[in-house]
Amino acid sequence: MDLAVGMVLEGSDDDTNWTTIHTFSSILAGWNRYRPEIGETFKYRHYRLKNAPDISSSCLVGEIFYDGARVRTGDTDTQTCDIKFTSADGADLATMTSGFQYTATDTPVLTTLTPYYGAVAGGTSVTLTGTGFGTTPEDVSVTVDGIAGTVTACTDTEITFDTGEQTVYTASTLDINIAGKGDVNTKGQYYIYAYLWSEESTWGGETPPSDGQSVHIPTGMNVLYDIPPEESPLLQLVTIEGSLVFADDFDQTFDAYYVFIRKGKFTIGTEDNPRVNKLELTMHGDRWNTPEIPTYGNKVIAVREGEIDIHGTERSVVWTVLTATAQPGATTIEVEDAGDMVAGDDIVLASSDFDMNQAEVRTIADVSGNTITLTEALSNRHFGEIETYGDGSEEVDMRCEVGLLTRNIKIHGSGSYHSNPERHGAHIFVFSPGDETSVGRIENLELFNAG
Length: 451
Fold this sequence. Notes:
Elements lengths: L1 E2 L4 E5 L6 E5 L22 E5 L8 E2 L17 E9 L5 E12 L5 E6 L2 E3 L5 E7 L8 E5 L2 E2 L1 E5 L3 E5 L11 E5 L3 E2 L8 E5 L18 E3 L4 E4 L8 E7 L2 E4 L5 E11 L2 E4 L10 E5 L16 E5 L2 E5 L7 E3 L10 E3 L11 E4 L10 E9 L2 E4 L11 E4 L4 E4 L3 E4 L4 E5 L13 E5 L7 E5 L2 E3 L3
Parallel strand pairs: 9-17, 17-19, 18-20, 19-21, 20-22, 21-23, 22-24, 22-25, 23-26, 24-35, 25-36, 26-37, 35-38
Antiparallel strand pairs: 1-5, 2-3, 2-4, 6-7, 8-10, 10-14, 11-12, 11-15, 13-14, 15-16, 27-34, 28-31, 29-30, 29-34, 30-31, 32-33
C-alpha cells in the first residue's frame, strides 16, 4: 500500500467510526514516527493508516511498529489476545492467533526519581527507584529531553545515571528503556533541566532580577529559584510560560505582586518529593491602588492553561481533641494525640460555646508527650470531656477540637488581613477555557491573609 504526505493515523473502538489521531505532514526515508505530547492520551481497539485521497506523492509501507501503552481491563496479571491485520479499506489480511500476551510483571515501572531537577550544565547524579530494571547497566538507556544520560549503576529496583548537558529549551521528557523488556512505565514523571535564577547567564548576562522588576520565563525554559531569603527581591509581574521550580536546599521567601502561569508550570515540591524546607510566598498589593490583570485581579497567583504543583511536608496529626477542660488563663492543654507538633507551630482551639468567636489561635512553646505549653494564656474556656447519659451506656463526645495550622509552605497576602478594612488578601486562581488544560495539585499548604 502506498501512503502519501498528508496520510492520517486513525483509531476506532468499533471498526466503523474512526477518529483522526495524527496527520503526517512529512515523509522521511526509513522510519516515520508519531509520539503523543506529554499529557495527551488516547486508547482504541483498532488503528489504521489512511492515505490522503487528493495527494499523488507516496511511499511504500514495508513495516509498521506500534510502540505505546497497551491498555487492558481485568484482574489477572496476564492476558493473551489475537493480532488481526487489515488493510485501509477494511479487508482482512491475516490473523495471528494468541499472537500477543500482556504480562504486568514484565513491565518495568518507575516509582520515584531523586532529585527531580538539576542544572542545564549536566553532571547531576539522579537515582531512579522502581521494579523490573534488571541488573545490567549496559542494558539500560535513559534519555532526558532527548539527551542521553550516562548510566552508572543498576539493580532490579534502582538505576543511577548522570545527566548530560542541555543546550536548547525544550519540553521536559523522560524515556527509560531496558533491553529485552522495552520502555519503563514512568507514570508521567520527568526530570527538569533548570537554569539557576542566581546565575547571570540565565538572564542573558544581566544581573538577576531585583526589586520592582518583572520576569518572563519563556516556553521550554525551566528556572530554578535558588535565592536565599536575605536576597529575595520584591517582583512586579512574574509570567511563566516555561516553568519555575523552587530549590529545596534551604528555607526561602518569594515576594511578588502577580504570578501569571500561562501554559507553563509552577512547582514547589511534587507528590513523590514534597518540599522539606520552609517557603513563605507573599503576594503584595491592595484592592484600590494596585492595577488588576483582566479576569484575575491583583495580589494573585493565576493559572491559565498551565499547571501548579504545591506539595508541602505531610504532618502526622492535623486534628486532635482535648482530653481535659482548659480554663481561661491556662497556659497548658492536654490533647489526645500531639503527633509531630513542635515549638513554634500555631494551633487553633475550637469554640466550646454558642459564640464562634471564642475560638482561639495560639503558638506552641513546648510539647511533652501530649501536653502542649502555649506562649500565651487562653482567654476562654474550652471543654474537654465525654458526657454520659442514662445508665452510662450513652456517650456524647463534647471534647473541643484542636487543629494544627502550621505547614512548611505558606502563601499569604501582605499586611494584616483582619486589621485591614479592605479585607483583600492573596488569591490562587486556576482558570480553564472549558477544558482540562489547567491543572492544580495542592496539598499540605498553609494559607492566611487570603481571599
